[in-house]
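In these records, each integer encodes one residue's backbone shape. Here is one protein:

___
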Amino acid sequence: MSESSKALEDAVQGITEEHAAGRPTSGGWSIAQIVEHVGVSEEQMFFALTERFRPVPNPIHDAERENRLRDLILDRGEKMISPEVSRPAGRFPTLAAALSHFRQCRARTVQYVEHCKDDQRRRSVKHPLAGVVSGYEYLLILASHPSRHAGQIRELRATMGI
């Protein structure tokens, strides 16, 4: 989780609020909107993982599927449509505020992972894009998500020349 958080932090390093608000000519999200999405997604996924899970009698463990899910999340060539609930909606006035929200949500997630004694492979959780996954697979998605969008920010910075 720390690698993914660092990737996001590094991607926004040195971005001014003016640049953060700038939108690409292709009509995609601004850097501030991307960071808003990452933080809101973290919050939503944490809630699903901790409150909407279903216990399963036998552990769900498929290493190949787990690897495919992680790779899919990191693959910027594979476009995904964000669920409505986590799309940017101007929830934060600045990039700094959106980044602060992400940090708070990620800290809560890390604390949960460090202290949870439950076998996440004995849980199933419905992910809006991946469908029903084990709690462990859900954590893989949650952990990798900021890295995916760090790549998006790096691409946007290159396009914008910043």
In short: The domain at 2-160 is CATH 1.20.120.450 (Four Helix Bundle (Hemerythrin (Met), subunit A)). The chain has a mean pLDDT of 92.
